[in-house]
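Follow-up to my earlier ticket, as requested here are the two runs.
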Amino acid sequence: MSKEDPKYKSALQEQEGVEPPKVLSNVSAKAIKVKRQKQPSVTDLVNGLTNGDISALSRAITLVESTNSNHNKKANEVITACLPYANKSVRIGITGVPGVGKSTFIEAFGSHLTDLGKKIAVLAVDPSSTLSKGSILGDKTRMEDLVKNQNVFIRPSPSGNSLGGVARKTRETIILCEAAGFDTIMIETVGVGQSETAVHSMVDFFLLLKLAGAGDELQGIKRGIIEMADAIVINKADGDNLKAAKSAKVEFNRALHLYPEKDSGWSPKVTLCSALKQTGIAEVWELITEYLNTTKANNYFEHNRHNQNKFWLLQTIEERLKSNFYNSEKIKAELENQLALVEAGKTTPFVAAEYLLSL
């Protein structure tokens, strides 16, 4: 049958749509919209948080991540009210190159911890596009079993323009999660650039995931990330890759001996695991527990947290100064002029910067 035949029907046909039934009255629909627009008070959010209400926690984090100046004031009040309930968790930073299996590891590790009676919060920092400014935020999809667990809260957040792919708000989100009763906080980063440095400054234990046979052993040593790691876990140590993983363990152990002793008095360890086969996961937690016992006994644990608070004070001041600078109407107007002069070759970027800063 040819296409010209009037009886001919293409496989691509447009069906007439079905009109959805009006199950709600206009009055009900309006009431629902008003309810959704109504923002909870600081007291409501804090009470919800401290009672373990996940909805209140999610709304508080959204408030903290907002760039709206009115929201910032309210967020600061919420965080201040949550401080008496904070600092009662173990904070674990987890990083590694893309493809190392961070999400699979966190799912296996988190499931093991919940079996031990722990309440887990996973803060996954998703890289933001420098072009579209958007983020995929697909970590919940990867952790499909863990996300169903009643004792687990997973929150993917965009990195935005903050240093190294770690949102500044992550530091404040930790406080909110602790106030909500989560005793173990895991922070997953994209594992490229300087995100490791930022995560290291907000956690108690820094875990580096590595792959054997991927050609990144020397690169990892060169980048100096091993200096920050409290443990190196070689993932995907199963099947045909097990032999290569054991060889990599020997190499990393040798590399660790080249670094000076840590202030914590802890000697970083190297261990193997297979997140897919769920082997070696219990050993990772035993290693972290050993670290916590060591650092709490020699008072490094609290000392480190005090230093981190000082660091984030300075970071917050720097960010606020930067924000105030670029939001100044005077700077906005003059910045365009200076950019035009730089483009025309009539001044240098450095001279223009000095002039703008002098304003």
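Run two:
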Amino acid sequence: MAPRRIIIDTDPGQDDAVAILLALASPEEIEVLGITAVAGNVPLPLTARNARIVCELAGRPDIRVFAGCDRPLVRPLVTAEHVHGRTGLDGPDLPEPCMALEEAHGVDFIVETLRREPPGTVTLCPLGPLTNIATAIRRAPEIADRVQEIVLMGGAYFEVGNITPTAEFNIYVDPEAADIVFRSGAPLAVVPLDVTHRALVTPTRNAAFRALGTPVGLAVAQMTDFFERFDKEKYGAEGAPLHDPCVIARLIRPALFSGRHVNVEIETGSALTLGMTVADWWGVTDRAPNATFLGDVDAEGVFALLTERLARL
């Protein structure tokens, strides 16, 4: 089969960085058409910088990187330096990028790519707040029918929230954008905390990254060493969830994941539950299904894939 052609929309973030590395290490299954940065884990100048750092770490300075939206649609930006550090990529000592940022806006790149390419041939992979994707859909509503699939990391059902008691970070940062995306009619697959909290970077798994003995393996081990401190203290788990690489792993090995096609709506009006992904997991409403909401993952399979692919870089 031909590689899945994707645009990665991202706010790197250490786990975003690992997702980008996994995609770039998997050319048989994935062709990265470009990377669009969005404000999220850290402000836009840093996410655009970090995306280029990761491309160069992977030996792929040819990848086009675009800066997108620098703030949510209607709300002040909430960031996560308390998790990812001041730069978003704290942990390894990586050089400043040499590759240039593309001049075009990331939203324009998304719209123009989906208009140019044959319908059903481009997948969007948002790893951060959905501001860029929602802005593209508002600007050009017809692209919702042209996208092959939107596979996103965000939301939760059984795990509920990680930035508030009821909301996952990516959705909480820009709930209005998420609402636009979930109402767009585009095919959606959601990788929520229910999945990513099962994909933990245990000491054994992190040691496997370090044992690769390559700059990529060492950098990934140092990234996960850094950001796991927050999640281990918060959840009392044996390691940190590796959220965003699950999006790419689902494209490469869909059999590692399972879920249900259900209705998912985004709460935008309640101060108490703002950003909650209200998933009708049990089918108790008559609302039409609009998303494949994943609920389980073969974590050993994901980390075996990740270690094998990172060894290529």
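The only thing I checked on run two: The chain has a mean pLDDT of 96. Let me know what else you need.
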